[in-house]
Design goal:
The protein has about 525 residues and is mainly alpha-helical. It has 21 helices and no strands. Helix 1 (about 1-45) crosses helix 2 (about 55-95) and helix 14 runs antiparallel to helix 15 (about 385-410). The longest helix is centred in the N-terminal third of the chain and has 44 residues, at about 1-45. It is globular. The termini are far apart.
């Protein structure tokens, strides 16, 4: 008995040590992601774009909550969300019942999307469509296209031809949709693949593909997010054709006046119960689905099961802190900052400032962390997390710059999306399959809660002050953020392919006698 107590105590001590080490590592990653954005806004607020003290204090308090929220969420995703998704996916595939995969795929996509916090944020900011109407349309689109994505993995269908077909349908329908629905539809495709959906669905795809033994199984494990992003776009475009909008104008929220620190704390404390309830409802479908599979087929032992339970608690706490900080602290600051910058005589400064914020803000997206880690693990380090993060930062910087140009000029989003997606789809036929799938997944992942709660309000504030149409000119930021990674990640894939081809040519020529004295470049030139 005494020996058993020592054993349990030793395990507990080891677990605490690993937990402390994990939290410390995640806190460092969160600091590196959030602090650059905090510094940029502080510099702007003390120089060219003064913010009211109340807005600035809300922003700083929100940034602190973001730090700890990211820390807990990223640890929770590793411990719970990813292993749960993989186990459910592989268990479902082992049943070899196609109808079950189709049914569970649709239910999973529909239910998780309804509870996706990003979608709720977007729906609340769209004045012309009732919230629930938009949410149900988007959820139906995700459910249908998650089934399409699962069938693609099971039957080994190439992703590129599917993308050509579906985006041709999307842009064909978009040509007949009222302008008020256009930007909102493409924004919907970005926000649905957020911190709730991505960790579970990506791991779900890995679990489905793990049953296959062919050499393309790993490549096909990516692409779920890519296809799930198309569903909402198509669903909202169809909604635009059949739904009679009652109009509705966007009205900016009044700035809260904060008298002291106690009042500041009260604002966040009053918001916390709402997000505790919202995230509980969001996580419930995942917990229920996993619980059903645990009872019926998984039957995991106590230790791994308890590890997942702790991971879900960390995920829950992390998302509550993150979304409270983002919605209460970052949204008012983004809106007011946009208005202030647009009111300057040199309002074109919105473009470089937007690009700078976009470069750093994407790393603070929780789902970006999940994607970059999974890419690094599945490619055995061939595509590193740092390469992915840098590529995403560059692409989001470009997309936010283009979005700010739209705000200032009022040009149609069609003139940017059509050429952008055309280039992305053409590239898909020249880069390795895995890079295409990762690129289109990255587009959905990059446009998460930070985009919806800071970049979109930034554009809306600037649009209001510039006298533009918020629905047609400001909306579309999320769509732009979702589009540019499709190009940049595939360009990285093209570089990898050229590098590998160069290495192969060098290896072939080394077999020729007398060439040992030459370096690689000289051999290729010869």
């Amino acid at each position: 008995m005494e020996k058993r107590k020592h054993s349990v105590y030793g395990e507990l001590k080891l677990y605490r040590s690993r937990l402390k080490e994990g939290l410390s590592e995640k806190l460092k990653e969160a600091v590196s992601a959030v602090v650059p954005v905090l510094v940029i806004v502080l510099i702007l607020s003390f120089t060219i774009a003064p913010l009211p003290v109340s807005v600035l204090m809300e922003f700083i308090a929100g940034a602190v909550m973001l730090l700890f929220g990211m820390m807990f969420f990223t640890l929770g995703a590793e411990l719970a969300m990813t292993p749960m998704g993989e186990r459910v996916g592989s268990s479902l595939t082992r049943t070899k019942k196609l109808w079950m995969i189709v049914l569970f795929g649709f239910i999973l996509g529909f239910v998780i999307t309804i509870s996706e916090p990003d979608l709720q944020v977007l729906a609340e900011q769209v004045p012309s469509v009732p919230n629930m109407t938009l949410v149900l349309a988007v959820a139906t689109g995700v459910g249908i296209f998650l089934v399409v994505a699962l069938l693609r993995i099971l039957f080994g269908v190439a992703l590129a031809p599917l993308l050509v077909v579906f985006y041709a349908i999307v842009f064909g329908v978009a040509a007949f949709v009222p302008r008020d629905f256009l930007a909102v539809a493409f924004d919907s495709g970005g926000v649905t693949t957020g911190p709730m959906t991505v960790p579970f669905i990506m791991a779900f795809g890995i679990g489905i593909s793990s049953i296959r033994s062919d050499k393309h199984a790993a490549d096909d494990s990516f692409g779920l997010v890519a296809l799930c992003s198309i569903g909402p776009i198509l669903a909202v475009l169809i909604l635009g054709l059949v739904y009679q909008s009652e109009g509705g104008a966007y009205t900016a929220e009044a700035i809260r006046e904060i008298g002291d620190s106690v009042e500041l704390g009260r604002i966040f404390l009053e918001a916390l119960p709402h997000y505790f309830q919202e995230i509980a409802v969001s996580l419930l479908p995942i917990v229920v689905i996993f619980g059903i599979f645990q009872v019926v087929s998984l039957k995991l032992e106590k230790r791994p099961l308890m590890k997942m339970v702790m991971g879900m608690i960390y995920t829950y706490v992390g998302l509550v802190l993150f979304l409270t900080g983002a919605n209460v602290g970052f949204m008012p600051a983004g809106n007011y900052l946009g208005q202030t910058l647009a009111s300057l005589p040199y309002k074109w400064i919105l473009v470089p400032v937007g690009m700078l914020i976009g470069y750093f803000i994407v790393i603070a997206e929780p789902a970006v962390y999940v994607l970059t880690r999974q890419v690094e693990e599945l490619t055995d380090g061939a595509i590193s997390a740092n390469v992915m993060k840098t590529s995403l930062s560059v692409s989001v910087a470009v997309s936010v710059g283009l979005a700010m140009i739209r705000v200032l000029t009022g040009i149609s989003i069609f003139y940017l999306l059509v050429p952008g997606y055309t280039v992305a789809i053409i590239l898909s036929f020249f880069v390795p399959k895995m890079f295409t799938a990762i690129a289109f997944d990255s587009g959905g992942v990059a446009s998460g809660p930070m985009t919806a709660t800071f970049l979109l309000p930034l554009a809306m504030g600037a649009c209001v002050d510039s006298g533009g149409n918020v629905v047609t000119d400001a909306f579309g930021v999320v769509a732009m953020v979702a589009m540019t990674p499709l190009i940049t990640i595939q360009v990285v894939g093209l570089v990898y392919r050229l590098r590998d081809a160069k290495a192969e040519r060098v290896e072939e020529t080394r077999t020729v006698p007398g060439l040992d004295a030459y370096d690689d470049d000289a051999i290729i030139e010869l």
